[in-house]
User: Which sequence fits this backbone?
């Protein structure tokens, strides 16, 4: 048997992998593939779509193209969502030495990719960023409100990184694969700003340069920027400040729990004003139920948005949440009372200890029984 029949022929990886996280972008896929292919002519490339199980058939559309062009691939994620985590999975799914990240809505200027690659190689850079905030860059046809939100988020993001990066919120950049390999276990994967995550996780100063580009208008589909996305960005900032030991879901769960205190008081106060002190027990019970219900709905909407309960599952989830939090309330009171009456600590520390025990209990139990991931049959 000849050597060529037993030894596989060498097949070097592509020089550049372009990672595109998608959700409901079926109408943009064909045009994006066409533009990237035209722009990267003469460069060995691959295009990796990471789709969060879009209901519009985005993944199927990519597969149809991939059957005709082996440079196009799709990773379809089922049961989880998030732009940053999608980018991480896509970047880890290739052996290309250079990785580019861009949106699937055609708002990023793909013609900048060859310049990004050449700049990274010529100047031995770790990252080349497509920037809207350097000379020549533009935000495009954004409303004044969205521009203001972007600039505020940019200022907050720059507080976390030790680099003079003008546009840490950019979702359009090129990075060497070894930078991701070095830092992947320190990335939070939370929210939608993976570039900020990379810079804040890096253990060494990253060599970078920003190239200007103008943000284009969306061609099809709808924007994914909503209040939940803004919330996730704030959670990522908090996670970076507190460190990786505290799960980001627990941070969100606790913040919503704090909001529940105000909901509780907002229900109890008018009851007491109208019915008097004799209605305290009934008012307290009603306020606790309303607060737990609001906490459940907010956690279902935001904290567990990738595992959101619907239909009959929503009712079962509410029942299990209320049951778990009722036990958590008993644990809260019991621990606080034990520490205070036993003289182990003052009232403030006793109360805080009870709150912490109750919060941890509520989070742990509801994570298992309320928002449990479906198991394979």
Assistant:
């Amino acid at each position: 048997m000849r050597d060529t029949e037993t030894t596989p022929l060498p097949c070097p990886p592509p020089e550049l992998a372009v990672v595109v996280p998608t959700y409901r972008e079926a109408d943009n896929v064909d045009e994006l593939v066409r533009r990237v292919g035209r722009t990267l002519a003469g460069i060995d490339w691959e295009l990796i779509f990471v789709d969060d199980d879009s209901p519009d058939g985005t993944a199927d559309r990519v597969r149809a193209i991939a059957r005709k062009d082996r440079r196009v691939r799709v990773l379809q994620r089922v049961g989880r969502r998030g732009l940053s985590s999608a980018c991480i999975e896509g970047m880890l799914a290739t052996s290309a030495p250079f990785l580019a990240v861009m949106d699937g809505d055609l708002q990023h200027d793909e013609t900048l990719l060859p310049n990004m690659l050449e700049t990274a190689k010529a100047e031995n850079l770790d990252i080349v960023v497509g920037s809207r905030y350097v000379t020549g860059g533009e935000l495009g046809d954004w409303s004044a409100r969205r521009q203001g939100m972007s600039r505020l988020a940019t200022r907050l993001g720059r507080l976390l990184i030790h680099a003079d990066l003008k546009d840490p919120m950019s979702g359009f950049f090129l990075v060497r694969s070894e930078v991701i390999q070095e830092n992947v276990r320190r990335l939070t994967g939370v929210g939608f700003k993976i570039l900020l995550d990379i810079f804040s996780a890096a253990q060494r100063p990253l060599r970078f340069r920003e190239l200007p580009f103008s943000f284009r208008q969306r061609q099809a589909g709808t924007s994914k920027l909503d209040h939940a996305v803004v919330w996730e960005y704030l959670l990522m900032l908090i996670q970076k400040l507190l460190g990786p030991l505290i799960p980001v879901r627990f941070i969100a769960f606790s913040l919503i729990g704090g909001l529940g205190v105000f909901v509780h008081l907002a229900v109890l106060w008018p009851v007491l004003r109208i019915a008097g002190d004799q209605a305290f027990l009934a008012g307290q019970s009603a306020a606790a139920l309303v607060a737990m219900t609001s906490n459940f709905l907010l956690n279902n909407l935001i904290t567990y948005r990738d595992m959101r309960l619907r239909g009959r599952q929503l009712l079962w989830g509410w029942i299990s949440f209320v049951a778990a939090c009722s036990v958590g309330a008993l644990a809260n009171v019991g621990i606080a009372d034990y520490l205070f009456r036993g003289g182990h600590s003052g009232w403030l520390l006793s109360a805080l200890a009870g709150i912490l025990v109750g919060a941890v209990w509520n989070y742990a139990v509801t994570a298992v029984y309320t928002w449990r991931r479906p198991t394979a049959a």
Q: What stands out?
A: Strands lie at 16-22, 45-51, 72-76, 98-101, 127-131, 173-176, 208-212. The chain has a mean pLDDT of 82.
